[in-house]
């Protein structure tokens, strides 16, 4: 399985537009960070829903690749998100994924999103990815 540095290099190469930071990688669990700035905010001074959805989708992808290897063609088939509370506009967002199913063709991840330093999640998501046949 790829190391944290190999995952970081893969994202730099394949997704240079991605502005996520891979914080930690362990068995079926990954944490990523997004540095929040004014481009991620919506009126009312909160982090936008699309930013949180991007984080949920990305962290599931990183968690899957950490387990199956660097497969660029694994794709999202569903993503369901619940927005729970207002994220802080002046704190980074952390996304923590735990894979709850990793099969040959499908993987399912559960994600909790937090404003950095807060104990209560700002959103919860579950996503499914299709894994290409080997």
Automatic annotation (TrEMBL):
Transmembrane segments: 58-81
Domain Thioesterase: 44-120
Statement: the UniProt record of this protein carries the keyword Transmembrane helix: yes
Keywords assigned by UniProt, alphabetized: Membrane, Transmembrane, Transmembrane helix
CDD domains, A to Z: PaaI_thioesterase (cd03443)
Cross-referenced Pfam families: 4HBT
InterPro entries: HotDog_dom_sf, Thioestr_dom
PANTHER family linked: 1,4-DIHYDROXY-2-NAPHTHOYL-COA THIOESTERASE 1, BLL4964 PROTEIN
Name of the protein in question: PaaI family thioesterase
């Amino acid at each position: 399985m790829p190391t944290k540095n190999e995952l970081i290099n893969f994202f730099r190469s394949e997704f240079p537009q991605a502005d996520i930071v891979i914080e930690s990688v362990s068995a079926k669990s990954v944490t990523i960070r997004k540095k929040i700035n004014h481009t991620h905010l919506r009126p009312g001074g909160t982090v936008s829903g699309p930013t949180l959805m991007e984080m949920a989708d990305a962290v599931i992808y990183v968690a899957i690749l950490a387990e199956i290897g660097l497969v660029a063609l694994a794709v999202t088939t569903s993503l369901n998100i619940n927005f729970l509370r207002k994220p802080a506009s002046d704190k980074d967002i952390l996304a923590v994924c735990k894979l709850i199913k990793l099969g040959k063709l499908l993987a399912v991840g559960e994600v909790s999103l937090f404003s950095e330093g807060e104990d209560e999640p700002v959103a919860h998501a579950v996503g499914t990815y299709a894994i290409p046949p080997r």
